[in-house]
Write a structure and sequence with these properties.
The structure holds 2 protein chains of 2 kinds. By secondary structure, chain A is of the alpha+beta class. Helices cover 38% and strands 30% of the residues of chain A. Chain A is globular and about 50 Å long. Chain B has one domain: Alpha-Beta Plaits (2-Layer Sandwich). In chain B, the strands form 2 sheets. Chain B has a 6-stranded mixed beta sheet. In chain B, strands 5-7-9-6-10 form a 5-stranded antiparallel beta sheet. Chain B has helices at 16-31, 63-70, 73-83, 125-136, 138-141, 173-182, 184-187; strands spanning 2-10, 36-43, 54-60, 89-98, 101-104, 110-117, 147-151, 155-157, 164-170, 208-214, 229-232. Chain B is globular, with a radius of gyration of 17 Å. Classes of the chains: A alpha+beta, B alpha+beta. The A-B interface holds A 11, 73-74, 76-77, 80, 83-85, 89-90, 93, 104-106, 108, 110, 115, 118-119, 121 and B 141, 178-179, 181-184, 187-189, 191-192, 194-199, 205.
């Protein structure tokens, strides 16, 4: 949502994951238990977790969305810097998560009404 | 133009007087280099990281001119001897390159920033091209970047085999620490190449980020007609 003139813009960091066939629930469990606590410790807030279709598929792939929020550019940088030197985070994505993921993307969003303010630096 | 950059970390045990003497001696050796088109020799500002204490940057008309100068007896006896003295120099990050993508106009004075990157995570050609194109587009969005150059060094030594030299000049420090760092084109877009959490991750987490104050233009891309622009911290 768009904030007031003195508030910090909410930034949305979205993980879009396509699980390997039949691995959707296992990935969700792993993400929630072994990724989420660290991300929260880095200052991010998990706003939504969504699964499509809303049934665990056995021989096909579920798609999962995780929508995180950060408090402005400062919040994004703080989370980045806190995680960048942590080898456990790299191991999570490259080993544990990779075993359950077919493909994934990450993207950063904001309310379009915030673009002018975010670019005014 | 052929450019040579060294980030020099002095031995921590060196006293202030020894540091000053080192700087003066290296400055004298540098000024004496033949065919020097320009040089910068300044202490790194607080906030630099993995960048040592001093930024030493020289440029020459071409690689042959640089080779003649840096292979010369005087430089080897004076400059190289200083830089190779392990009791005075703890670490050197070094790159040399010819040209590169560049743009903008140098301010008369301000801030020079250089970053050394090592793109060693699945560095496929199409990924490197995309990274370079997006990096070169930063000045279109981040207007505080007055002058810039992205180059691929053909000589690189130090803590990594550096693959990219990313230089900028700003009118003020706020242009770097404020606009450059806080613009969404940076933290929400280009930074994904640097972030181990993104599938696009390309650049080794070990990088050099050095900046210093300037009193003359730094990034030259063609030979100058007049006398060389020298800048040092004296």
């Amino acid at each position: 949502m768009m904030g007031g003139a003195n508030s910090v813009a909410t930034i949305y960091v979205v993980d879009d994951v396509t699980a390997k066939p039949g691995a959707g629930e296992a990935f969700l469990d792993a993400y929630m238990s072994r990724y989420v606590p660290g991300a929260q410790a880095r200052g991010l807030t998990l706003l939504y977790r969504l699964v499509s279709p809303p049934v665990w598929l056995r021989e096909q792939s579920n798609r999962l969305l995780f929508v995180w929020t950060a408090a402005g550019a400062e919040g994004v940088w703080a989370a980045k810097f806190a995680g960048r030197s942590d080898p456990r985070l790299t191991a999570w994505w490259e080993t544990e998560a990779a075993a359950l993921i077919e493909s994934r993307s990450r993207a950063v969003f904001s309310d379009p009404a915030e673009l002018a303010r975010l670019g005014r630096v | 133009m052929y450019s040579v950059l060294k980030l020099i970390e002095l031995a921590p045990a060196l006293a202030a007087a020894e540091r000053s003497a080192f700087r003066a001696a290296l400055r004298a050796a540098t000024v004496a280099l033949p065919a020097l088109e320009g040089f910068l020799f300044e202490p790194t500002c607080p906030g630099s990281f993995n960048a040592g204490d001093l930024i030493w940057r020289t440029c020459f008309t071409d690689a042959d001119a640089a080779r003649r100068a840096l292979d010369g007896e005087r430089w080897r006896q004076e400059g190289e001897a200083l830089l190779g003295n392990g009791t005075q120099v703890r670490r050197l990050e070094q790159v040399a390159w010819t040209g590169g993508a560049c743009g903008g106009f140098s301010p008369a004075r301000g801030v020079y920033r250089v970053a050394l990157f090592c793109a060693n995570r699945a560095p496929r050609a199409e990924r490197l091209e995309c990274f370079a194109a997006e990096t070169c587009a930063m000045p279109q969005y981040i207007r505080s970047i007055r002058r810039w150059q992205l180059a691929t060094p053909h000589e690189a030594t130090g803590s990594r085999v550096w693959t990219h030299v990313w230089e900028q000049e700003y009118e003020t420090l706020a242009g770097l620490t404020g606009a450059y760092m806080m613009h969404p084109y940076h933290w929400a877009h280009v930074d994904r190449w640097f972030d181990p959490e993104w599938p696009e991750w390309l650049v080794d987490p070990v990088l050099c980020h050095a900046f210093c104050e300037t009193t003359a233009p730094v990034i030259f891309t063609r030979p100058r007609a007049g006398p060389p622009d020298h800048q040092d911290g004296e």
